[in-house]
Amino acid sequence: GRLRFVEVLGEGGYGVVYRATDETSPTSSSMPDPKQYAVKALLKAEYGSRRWQYHQNEIAAHKLLTGHRNVLTLHDIIDDDKYTYLILDYCSGGDLFSAISEKHQFAGNDALVKDTFLQIIDGVQACHNKGIFHRDLKPDNIFCVDRELNKIVIGDFGLATAERSSDTFGCGSAYYMSPECIGQDTGYRTYDVAASDVWSLGVILTNMLVGRNPWNFAQFSDDAFFNYVEDNHYLIRTLPISKSAWFLLNRMFTWSARDRVGLDELRQMVLDVDTFF
């Protein structure tokens, strides 16, 4: 088809994401508007450079994962002299950050929290089952296909890796990093990236429940995090959450990655929650 860029949806160091319409898509009385896509324009990097490798990893991971219900669909890849364009599903509901911080859609809504978080778990599980570990899970990289949040998808695989063990520290977005990914308080030891993804899910769930992070950074120099490590009841004392939610978060926020809940058990625990609030 022939794509026309309509508006900028977001931009960063990688390039720009546009909303685009397919000017050649068929229309009808029931669907009068042309098909819409999100187009991620990646500024081309020097062959063999670190940024070039990240782009190759992102495209390879997204190709492998496309097709799962809870992964953003990659339809096509188009190249020109300056950019590589990833043609993606357009999600009219925006990202999860907007649903949490601007629309407050989860406040007091047990059913919506449960349904949405289960879909996020399923999307991450699909990645892990294919040997892909996201490394940058956060509300900004989780998308709502519609405004009612009926369908949730994981996107943005720019930092994804196929290596389960990593010695790359500080990879991702600081608020969502596990202690072992930060590395400062764990001696910069090689860590399990799958378990680190689960930690990020814990921060995401906290945001969904109370509209903020439990701490700024998961390191001892952060007072809130230090208090959490020292006091097993810290989260339920400081956040308006239920005992079930407190227990769930504590299983996701274990200091030892080996003790952290896995995705299969996490999914069942979420199903068993009576109320989060």
From TrEMBL:
Gene3D superfamilies: Transferase(Phosphotransferase) domain 1. GO terms for molecular function: ATP binding; protein serine/threonine kinase activity. ATP binds at K40. Keywords: ATP-binding, Kinase, Nucleotide-binding, Serine/threonine-protein kinase, Transferase. One of its GO terms (cellular component) is nucleus. Residues 3-277 form the Protein kinase domain. Pfam families: Pkinase. The keyword ATP-binding applies. PANTHER family: SERINE/THREONINE-PROTEIN KINASE PLK, SERINE_THREONINE-PROTEIN KINASE PLK4. Belongs to the protein kinase superfamily. This is Protein kinase domain-containing protein. It comes from Ceriporiopsis subvermispora (strain B) (White-rot fungus).
